[in-house]
Amino acid sequence: MNYQQIIRLLGNITLIIGVSMTASLPWATPLFGETNHFESSGFWGLVGAMAICVLLGLLLIYMGRSSRGQRLMRREAVAVVGLAWVLATVLGAMPYWLSGTGTCYDQSGKPVAMDVFDGLFESASGFSGTGATILTNLEPSDDLNRETLVPRCVLFWRSETHFLGGLGIMVLFVAILGLGTTGKTLMLTEMPGPAQETDHARSQRVAWNFAIIFISLTLLATIILCFLRVSLFDSLCHAFGTIATGGFSTHNNSVEYFNSPAVETVITIFMVIACVNFALLYSVVILQPGRLFRDPEFRVYLAVMGVASLVVVFSLLLTGIYDSTAQAARHGVFQVVSIMTNTGFGTADFNQWNSLSRAALLLLMFVGGCSGSTSCSIKVIRYILLFKTVGIETEKVFHPSVVRPLRLGKKPVDDPTIGKQIILYFALIMLIFVLGWILLIAVEPDSTWLEAGSQPQDHKLLDCASAVSATLNGVGPGLGIVGESENYSHFHGPGKFILTWLMLLGRLEVFALLALLLPRFWRKV
Fold first, then answer.
1. Structural domain boundaries of the chain?
2. Residue 90's closest CA among 14, 167, 195, 35?
3. How far is CA 241 from the centre of its chain?
4. What is the pLDDT of residues 114-150, one digit of tens each?
């Protein structure tokens, strides 16, 4: 294991995270932050976090200086990716801690500052694109005698972590520095979904293509939202959350705050686009849209979303949740798209919907978007390959001599082990879900539900299951005490810590983080 090379690359990533915090500083001023005073606590908290990142980054680069020019091997790449996301989670929490960001008010009306678990949870949720939160009040305080819980500049940083995580720390790293074969190895390790090989000479170009499309979509969404009379601050933050499929809002009621069908339609369209394979979006950019519509994953993605929308909308109408078809379609389609794309924005409290609608949304948490997109969860392509693999293996039961290749569309899949890999991944996700569910039930006391005005014997099992599903799959809101109108502030420190790791496991698709826990991973070969 080349430890110096790992340390040097982590130093570069630390510097990138520190420099990116400068974009949040202007929002501490009344001009940008839409406040009536300069938010000194948020400003100096960000400055302190930046200073820590710069000093730590320079120190790590100095410690690993002798590894310059050395080729990065697969094992070191896995270590860099896994450790970089853990490091980003810690560094991303610094602005919360140093600014004194509050989770709620105590009995005297003073903010209760984030503890270690709160900061790590919020940071991991931002970078992983989960959108789960422990913050109870995001709005500026109207009471001059009561401090605002979350400074506007810190609130912007919270949404900016969506941008950095959605773009991908490694993709941003490779786009800026290139790094040849090192860049190729890092990108293939971080990119979600079954990846296509790319020549190392093209890795920086691929990273730039991904980054340009991602940034362009973000800017376009921002401009359209501004045109719809959404403030620049809200437009940027919601564009970050939409294109990164993160779901952090700047308002307690999420997208419902705007009460605008036009705003909801724009966000819905961009959520759908953000979960399409970016390689296919690039084909559209270079005027080859046929590749997009011929892609089997894209067609199944739209079909699942369409069928789920119809089921939820009709279910809402039949049970009388909404009186008009327009209202049922408006909220039903938005929530289906939001949950399936793992964004987590809300226009209605779906926790109050009928059982069929809630069950459909819970199942959609395990679907996700297309591979090579900003979506978390299992991905549509894995379901396609799983069903095809099961079909081939079932046929062998009554035709054992038949040799039938696994095909995606009309092309055979080159990797002969892909079927076993897919089955292993599904099994691993289910195992992690069950273990996370049991652990959360074990460590979270019944008082969590009693304090929330709920009965643990009635709701604890389902609430814990939905919390694990929502964090592991990068959705954010779940059911019960973590529903759309609630948050994760009810959970105690150990519970938040478990959910923090589930968010990172889901974003990195398990293996990059699990490898770090194996002793033989760190041994010399």
1. 413-522
2. 14
3. 9
4. 999 999 999 999 999 999 999 988 887 666 556 788 9
For the beta carbon of residue 440, count every other beta carbon within 10 angstroms.
Answer: 22
Instruction: Write out the two tokens for 369.
Output: 């978007």
Cα 79 from chain centre: 21
DSSP per-residue letters across 262-319: HHHHHHHHHHHHHTS-HHHHHHHHTT-THHHHH-HHHHHHHHHHHHHHHHHHHHHHHT
Identify whether the C-beta of residue 62 lies closer than 8 Å to the C-beta of residue 14: no
Q: Is 104 helix (H, G, I), strand (E, B) or coil?
A: strand
Amino acid type, 245: T
If DSSP states are collapsed to H, E and C, what string results for 413-443?
A: CCCCCHHHHHHHHHHHHHHHHHHHHHHHHHH
Nearest CA among 170, 302, 161 for reference residue 244: 161
CA distance 444 to 490: 10
Over residues 197-245, the pLDDT tens digits come to 444 445 567 777 888 899 999 999 999 999 999 999 999 999 999 999 9
pTM above 0.85, yes or no: yes
Question: What is the token pair recorded at 103?
Answer: 């989770």
